[in-house]
Amino acid sequence: MDIRNIDQVVAFTTKDGSEIRELLAHRNSCIRNQSLAEARLPAGAATAPHFHSVTEEIYYVLAGTGAMQVGTEIRDVGPGDAIAIPPGAVHQISNTGAVPLRFLCCCAPAYEHHDTILSAPADLAAP
């Protein structure tokens, strides 16, 4: 049985600039087709605009408030919000609050650095 506690997972920074604690993935468990991580963004921070060629993601906000942009659509998000991010969609999340924004990031297939492609901010506005 694979069980990981968030307090014992070493953090790393992804290509988009968020601090990640990968809880379950093929790198540390029997899971092969997806990954689950907690992301953290400090107050005033934002991820770099990016997309994933293959991976679809779900963000689930645990704490804090933010602005989520997928393509040209921007929505305010907070605890309890789940955000669907299809493969190929340029996206960015910004912390709009005074406390760290914490959210779960579920990826299928599992998160990989090579599937994270940084985009110009203008790509978010492209149709």
Task: Describe this structure as you would to a colleague.
- The structure is a single chain.
- The protein is built from 1 helix and 11 strands; from the N terminus they run βββββββββββα.
- By secondary structure, the chain is mainly β.
- The strands form 3 sheets. A 6-stranded antiparallel sheet has the order 1-2-3-10-5-8, with no helix packed on it. A 3-stranded antiparallel sheet has the order 7-6-9, with no helix packed on it.
- The longest helix has 4 residues, at 122-125.
- The model has no long low-confidence stretch (mean pLDDT 94).
What percentage of the residues does DSSP assign to strands (E)?
A: 35-45%
In this structure, how is the largest beta sheet organized? 6 strands, antiparallel
The number of distinct β-strands equals: 11
Indicate the overall shape. Answer: globular
Provide the residue-averaged pLDDT. 94
- Class derived from helix and strand content: mainly beta
User: Number of helical segments?
Assistant: 1
Gyration radius from CA atoms, angstroms = 14 Å
Q: Identify the strand order in the major beta sheet.
A: 1-2-3-10-5-8
Q: Ranges with pLDDT <50 over ≥5 residues?
A: none
Q: Helix and strand succession?
A: EEEEEEEEEEEH
State the helical fraction: under 10%
Spatial separation of the terminal alpha carbons? 45 Å
